[in-house]
What we know:
Two copies of one chain form a homodimer. Chain A has seven helices and two strands, in the order H-H-H-E-E-H-H-H-H. By secondary structure, the first copy, chain A, is mainly alpha-helical. A two-stranded antiparallel sheet of chain A has the order 1-2. In chain A, a hairpin with a 7-residue loop joins strand 1 and strand 2. In chain A, helix 1 crosses helix 4, helix 2 packs across helix 3 (41-53) and helix 4 (69-92) crosses helix 6. The longest helix of chain A is centred in the middle third of the chain and has 24 residues, at 69-92. Chain A binds a DNA duplex through helix 3.
Amino acid sequence: MTVHDQLSASLEDYLEAIYNLSSDNRIARAKDIACQLRVARASVTGALRTLAQRELINYKPYGYITLTERGRRLAWKIVRRHQILNYFFAQVLGVETTAAQEAACRTEHTLGPEVTTRMTAFVEFIRRKQADGQDLGQSFQQFWSLLREG
Amino acid sequence: MTVHDQLSASLEDYLEAIYNLSSDNRIARAKDIACQLRVARASVTGALRTLAQRELINYKPYGYITLTERGRRLAWKIVRRHQILNYFFAQVLGVETTAAQEAACRTEHTLGPEVTTRMTAFVEFIRRKQADGQDLGQSFQQFWSLLREG
DNA sequence: TAATATAGTTAGTCCGGGCTAACTTTGCAA
DNA sequence: TTGCAAAGTTAGCCCGGACTAACTATATTA
């Protein structure tokens, strides 16, 4: 079984989309996955088959799509990573929200576990400082403005 | 002409390798590119052709490989991005050097221009603070140790 | 319940970018 | 100067992951 392998960037995206759609509201529909990932419906089918055979989702042709326990755990990690990066890009670097989102989408697949955990801690570190009245994002963004305008 | 297009991650790697090899010492040899990127010699040939037709390198079969002016400028940006990330991973997050290098290699291709410039500024910002006796990397790494050990 | 719209799948194609095997060119050493 | 090893190229293959077109299943609603 190829069950333990790393997922490709593309498969991570599918898994993440399924996670988001199924928690957002109801059921993850292939149509919506396609739409969210801006991909043809036909491409979704292939990805679903692969995810199913890696035992990350439960999937039968024309049936409902649900995450397995393994799938849910993995998806959660992926989503988490995404959020961390997004926070860093948006709140610390001050990148505009949709650009930050897009960057996070692209970058999230390349961080190894080492960098991910440290990055997570770093964001936590920054949040604490902020709670202590020391807003790093803000003071960087001041610096940034000076660079730009001044 | 496809001359203005974005390069794929893989082509960026080739360009970067050529840049490094030709500044490191002498001439960028296909053999060394292959070795550095851990790729078969045959794969290099294809990449060289593509880079040549995008006017980023001067290349004739069996000839020397040199960067064009455009190629050099672009390669420089790529190398720069790599260094910035590497600094951030190693000096700020405290990731061990070779792991930081590897992460930088994977991540560098996904940062858009917006994030890249801000990231560059962020690293500069941190350096300044460090010069002022406020070492963010160090204080984060203290925090990190507490998380781990404490 | 039958007709049709919508969702999903299949088949077949393409493209990037790897690979190996076999061939050609180049360059060094006898 | 020739003769062989090393470097480079070509041809042909594979794989992942997109696509379109055409088909099938499902759902809606008249």
